[in-house]
Specification:
Layout (H helix, E strand, L loop, with lengths): L4 H15 L7 H22 L5 H15 L4 H36 L1 H9 L7 H13 L4 H19 L3 H18 L4 H10 L3 H30 L6 H6 L54 H24 L7 H7 L2 H15 L8 H12 L3 H20 L1 H11 L4 H16 L2 H12 L8 H14 L9 H10 L3 H29 L1
Length: 513
């Protein structure tokens, strides 16, 4: 299977590091590991203790790591800027388009329709429904795209059910993350399949077998514990996208005497006992100026339009020859940026003029949608810059040398290499590609089934314990309005559960198949 797009770009920058994994240990390797550890500590201390803005803290940490790792002084900022630009040039565009779509979805009343449908039935099934929806959306979509599409629905469901944000947020995040790490056509798994010469169909089938129980454990089940550890309500940039103005601290006690929040603004949410039945008085995201509401069917068509376009592209990549004259067109319309742009244009009709918004009002709403996510984009970009200086400084190479020195089975070695590089660089895709390149010679004689399981083990390792050098860490933190500590206790632990579950399940299948 050929490696295309983002997977090829990442592979080109990190396979050189994999080639040096068998070279002798040097003083520079020790130096970069120490510098990386200190750099991560600096970022955490600046944010947690000094309360410095995350963008500035990440920038300072990046400059320290770049200088300390031995990158030439005149190239340190270039490395950081490359990382920032690489993330914002892609993820930043997706965040902006997703915010536009989310704003129109909320203000038109489309999000209310989706949430009302989800809230039907027993409240205990809501986290499972959220995980299922996230899993379906996450099959063709990158994590960032699925997150920006699901955020309005998740946050509005939190507000309407008057429950803790993590009870619904964790299942959604787990569904997206598992698919991102295990299932092609995501760039990491696709690159590993190409490097290890694995079979796409076998990897996809086994990946789904591993993904289902992993999502269950890391999503709805862990979500119960995460909600107890971090009992917050709707907050963060996602709250602003859905039209909220205050952050809520979840309390299981009925709030019969609290008609206003601490800020003095009226709290229009229903009492806990009313959550889940769509009763009058519950929080609604719909703009009062809307003269109509999109139907549930129209809402789903609009939301799933980018999903369909990307599925078409994925199918063409697998089953259509690259020489087919239609292939370039399908590649274009299925590109995430194009697919989301089409969805926004469609939403301007279905969620805009279709519900009574004028062209002038639509323009105003599009502008308003970008305000809550400006800070998010800068922080995510800085996280990408921090990751890049770690990679350019040689941290990934040093980690690879440590892992190769251990005498382990190819499956366990692949997982460990991916874990160590993930911890050091923060990039799941870099960890996947590098680990696959390092173990490729050891995996050459394996059967197609065992090769596919090695691919999945590497993908599982690439998700281990996301922290401050991962742009996704900051995306989750800002969208859900969490502190660094809360993000580690929820998102980072969830990622670790996914990684360990992936290892255990692939190890079991490797032993019996």
């Amino acid at each position: 299977m050929a490696i295309t797009g983002a997977a090829r770009a990442v592979q080109a920058t990190v396979l050189a590091a994999a080639d040096t994994a068998n070279s002798p240990w040097t003083g520079h390797d020790t130096r970069v590991l120490v510098v990386a550890a200190i750099g991560i500590a600096i970022v955490v201390l600046l944010i947690v203790w000094i309360k410095m803005h995350a963008f500035l803290a990440l920038t300072i940490g990046s400059l320290f790591v770049g200088i300390g790792s031995g990158i030439a002084l005149n190239k340190v900022t270039a490395s950081y800027e490359t990382g920032v630009g690489g993330v914002l040039g892609y993820v930043g565009v997706l965040i902006a388009l997703g915010a536009m779509l989310g704003k129109l979805l909320a203000d038109s009343g489309g999000a209310d329709k989706v949430v009302e449908t989800l809230l039907r039935g027993r409240p205990a099934t809501l986290p499972w429904k959220m995980a299922l929806i996230a899993g379906i959306i996450g099959i063709p979509m990158f994590f960032e795209i699925g997150l920006v599409l699901l955020i309005p629905v998740v946050m509005l469901a939190v507000r309407r059910s008057n429950g803790p944000a993590m009870r619904l947020g964790i299942p959604a995040l787990a569904g997206l993350s598992v698919l991102h790490g295990f299932i092609p056509p995501h760039p990491g798994p696709l690159a590993a399949i190409g490097i290890l010469h694995a079979n796409v169909g076998v990897t996809l089938a086994l990946g789904l077998i591993v993904a289902i129980p992993t999502v269950i454990v890391a999503g709805p089940l862990f979500g119960v514990l995460a909600a107890r550890m971090v009992p917050i309500g709707a907050a963060g940039a996602a709250l602003a996208v859905t039209g909220g103005t205050t952050a809520d601290t979840f309390s299981p006690a009925p709030r019969t005497s609290r008609g206003a929040t601490a800020s003095g603004k009226r709290d229009n949410r229903s009492a806990p006992g009313n959550g889940g039945n769509g009763s009058v008085g519950q929080t609604r995201a719909q703009d009062p100026d809307a003269t109509g509401t999109p139907s549930f069917g129209i809402t789903l068509i609009t939301l799933l339009s980018p999903l369909v376009l990307m599925l078409i592209k994925a199918a063409a990549d697998v089953w259509m020859s690259k020489t087919n004259p239609v292939h370039p067109l399908l590649d274009f319309i299925g590109d995430p940026v194009v697919a989301l742009t089409v969805a926004v244009l469609l939403a301007m009709v279905t969620f805009g003029t279709g519900v009574g918004f004028s062209a002038q009002v639509l323009t105003k709403k599009i502008g308003q949608s970008l305000l809550p996510i400006v800070g998010v984009m800068l922080i995510v970009g800085a996280g990408g810059g921090f990751k890049q200086v770690l990679v350019d400084g040689g941290t990934g190479t040093a980690i690879a040398k440590i892992a190769v020195a251990a005498s382990l089975s190819v499956l366990l070695l692949g997982w460990i290499v991916a874990v160590l590089i993930r911890l050091a660089t923060g990039s799941a895709t870099v960890a996947t590609v590098t680990a696959a390149g390092i173990i490729a010679p050891l995996a050459s004689g394996l059967s197609p089934v065992h090769l596919a399981l090695v691919v999945l083990a590497v993908g599982a390792g690439s998700l281990f314990f996301s922290h401050v050098n991962d742009a996704g860490f900051w995306l989750v933190k800002e969208y859900f309005g969490l502190t660094v500590g809360q993000t580690i206790k929820t998102w980072s632990v969830m990622e670790t559960i996914i990684s360990i579950m992936g290892l255990l399940l692939t190890w079991l299948l490797f032993s019996i198949l």
